[in-house]
Each structure stands twice: as C-alpha cells, then as structure tokens.
From TrEMBL:
One Pfam assignment: YCII
Record InterPro entries: Dimeric_a/b-barrel, YCII
Residues of the YCII-related domain: 1-111
Region of interest: Disordered: 120-142
Protein name in UniProt: YciI family protein
Length: 142
C-alpha cells in the first residue's frame, strides 16, 4: 500500500523561511532511513501558498484564487510518499520524524492512497490507469 505523509504548514513555512542546514541534514538522514527500509517513493517540500493558486469549480464555471491563503494550519508545507504494509507501520516511521522540524511543533497527517483496483470500474479503464501509472513512473526516471 502507498501512503502520503503530509507535513502541515506553519508561520515559518508560509513566510518562505528557509530550513536551517541542521534541519536539512536531519531530514536527509530521515529520508535515507526510509530509503534503506525500502519505503520511500517520493518526498518534497512545497513553496509557500503565496506562490500558488486555487482553482475552484462551481456551477460549470471556474474561479482562480491566487495565493497566499489565509489558514496556514490547513495548508501543506511538504509531503513524503511511502510504501508500507499498514498504517501502523507508517505511524512508526513518522514517529522518527526529525524533532528539529518546526522546533518540535509540527503536525503530520498520514493518508492511505486509494489504488485503482479499489474503484468500481471496467477492466478496460483499470488497464488505462495502470498504463498511465507506468508512463508517469517512466517520466519520473527521465
């Protein structure tokens, strides 16, 4: 199973404050642990919401809202995607998150990624989804 580990934003991440060298090193070591465990699929920090936009769809129309966005606690500062056998396994991985991050005050959310085979769809559509996944993985390697 795949899981997304979501690091919530805070005032520092929304201000675009760069991480300290110590934190970058600690996160690198943490990610290397995930690599050695065969769990890490992807990980990245995100730019502040001021560098983003929201596209809302309503009544057949679209509205674009440029950042920054008001509620930092509802925003995402970064993510890590891992492969694991259970939610509990991911919880144990996240418990080793570097305490330097956010001065030890961060909120991490863990969500299981719903896989194509879980949806009620035709075999033809499932095959198209699997082909798309293979193509995106090849794109990542390029």
């Amino acid at each position: 199973m795949r899981f997304l580990i979501i690091r919530r934003a805070d005032a520092d991440t929304e201000a675009g404050k760069p991480a300290s060298e110590e934190l970058v090193e600690a996160m690198s070591q943490y990610n290397q642990e995930l690599v050695r465990a065969g769990a890490l699929l992807d990980a990245a920090g995100l730019a502040p919401s001021s560098a983003g936009a929201i596209v809302e769809f309503s009544g057949g129309g679209t509205t674009v809202i440029d950042g920054p966005f008001a509620e930092a606690k509802e925003l995402i500062a970064g993510y890590t995607m891992v492969r694991a056998d259970s939610l509990q396994e991911v919880v144990e991985l996240v418990k080793r998150w570097p305490t330097l991050d956010g001065g030890g005050n961060v909120e991490i959310e863990i969500r299981r990624i719903a896989e194509t085979d879980e949806y009620d769809m035709s075999d033809e559509l499932k095959e198209k989804e699997h082909e798309m996944r293979a193509t995106t993985e090849a794109n990542r390697e390029a």
